Amino acid sequence: MKTKAIFFVPSSILGVLAATAPSPLPMLTLFSAQILILKGMNKLKRNEVILTLIVFTLFFAVTKHTESANQTILGKGERSLQLDFRSGALIDGDSFKAFAVDLESGEELLVTYRIRSEAEKEKLLSASFFGVSSILGGELKIPPEARNPGGFDYRSYLRRQQVHWIFDSDTMPLEDARIRKLTFYEMIGRVRETETKHLSERLPKETARLVSALIFGEQSKIPENLEGAYTKLGISHLLAISGMQVSLLSGLVLYAGIRLGVAREKMAVLLILLLPVYAVLAGGSPSVIRSVIMASIMLTIPLGSNRIGFGIVDALALSFLIFLFTSPYILFNAGFQLSYAVTFVLVFSYQAFKEKELTGLTFMITGTVISQLAALPILLTHFYTVPLISILANLVFIPLYSFIFSPVVYSFYILIALFGSVPAWIGGAVNTIIIFSDNLALALSKVPIQLYPGKIPIFLLALYTIGVLTVFKLWEKIQLWKKSLLILSVPFLILAVHSYANTNFSKTGEITIIDVGQGDSILISLPGGEGNYLIDAGGSIVFEKKPWQERVSSFDPGQDIVIPFLLARGIGKLDKLILTHGDQDHIGGAIAILEEVQVKEIVMPHVEEKSKSEHDILALAAEKQIKVTEVTKGDKWYAGGASFHILSPEKGNNKERNDNSISLFTKLGGKSWFFSGDLEEQGEKSIMANYPGLGIDVLKAGHHGSKTSSTEDFLTLYRPKIILISAGAGNRFGHPHTETIQRFKELDTIIFRTDLHGAITYTFYGGKGTFSTHLPYNALSNQE
User: What global pTM score does this model have?
Assistant: First the structure.
């Protein structure tokens, strides 16, 4: 092969990273090292070194230009905007979301709206927002940032789409709407929207969402738990349009045209014109765009040309360069990374597969393991966990999708296009198989065969990447497939040892007040794997909703905040889940945690009347055979050289639920800690009466810093030095109350608040430790 496009890929990546990093120096150093290594291996000639330098500089300059242009001139607050909708809307329950352009500033915004009635929802569902222009009143809000380690940074996600604001509209989006003439690509988008709606009307919902996903790339109707199961199993690629599908369709069209007597050159030109249209029609996912660019390159430059020696690797590399040049921010997209990483590795492994003569099951197993290895550094970067069961899941689901679902999907779509419907008995039978497949995925996702290495430092991630590449090189040289699989398993074995050591040999401990919004969730992680305790699990206060208001994807602090935090910490098992009392904002997220994380024991207060949420948790605990312990004042346990004492509730009391909270006292990292749950005045009086000599260095303020907690008498008696407040930013209850903050200030205490500082972490070693906050800490911000 004479062309060397593959060698320009690292240069383009480093150019983008140098432009987006706080300092370009580390990337310049890596770029220089890359040049020296390739030059030393005689892979690059002098003119190719110059070309590599040009590629680095070009991508650096393009990304810098994109960064400088990616600014906003708008400011937050109430206002009226004339908005131009240029894509479809997502309507889920009573939630409306759509991207639109503010015509005055030219900026794209994410428009949100809370639907007020079922009739209003029907009107929105029946409309298409392509080409709709409306004047809407509402409030510009800054998108939320990650407030916990391992959390999803929505602000950065939107910024990389060059969106800086969420416009929360209080006007119905179709009010005073005007329709303008659509652009060509908007017409294609509208066709996609119309077709997916027709599928929903003509097919059972499970079949409709699968057909929509595999033909149009529409995944918004897939339930959140099912989407999570596919992601956890490493088979989410099956729900997306694959590059193979694009290549197959392109090949079939090309072959059909040639068979009909159309010259290959004319068919190639036609396909090059049609493929971008198909990319829009298929939703424009990274895998689709990659395949479209590759197919266009392959049609433009005939493969195997002896004159230039252009091959499939070059087409793949060139597609990468074109994609990244036109969209530098796509480099940070997990789908883009996975699509190219897996494809590059499989393309490079093609010759080795041929030489090893792998067929049938051995071919599938080896291909699956290789794909998982290629994805390993990316999974570690974005998800902090490696699902080993994904190998088995791929072996089950790839044949199912390849030989059953894919042919059925295309057949159903053709039948609907020709006859308007699918025979009921066929549709029903297929829908039953799809439901079985979904249930199987949900069941397999709960099998605890995963590695939990947590968030890995960048240098260690680089070592894993180098290790994976080394293993691939060794694998190519081994002929026996069993020895080949043994070599391929080495990185997983090393990662398993790493995960075990990370959990069991760490000499530091941690106490983190997780920012779950208006609620509580606290992690206590003891050194050396001696114990991981989660006190409460957060939760949203759920109001009764009508059927039309129910959402496919709803926010759950347990699922969306606590679990990612635990995974980032490398925690896949909890020794105790301590649920202080039955309020939803403390235990609402517990169900998700029990479903996703191994829990050895649930600790609850011994009270006469339990809430519905507590009964639901007990039922699930019984189903999963999890030990449940109900505690009262005087109960205790020992772990990791520390003792943990339950100070409330008292036996047989009849206090209100908040004052029946579990309160926990312990000494860790050279400090004494009092975790108060939602104790208010009556509960605090009991603590003072029973434990007047209690020494408290760190107080987790009761009831989110409400006016009726952390009373003057309580604070005067114990005089804590540090106050931790868990409260939601801008919560509607006004927590923490200004009077409570004033009481803390009079004690001259240090105050940490999740609403201001995000997650609050105390990392300790022996008898010493340090506090840190996820968001910048400003002591003056507490003076409210």
Answer: 0.90
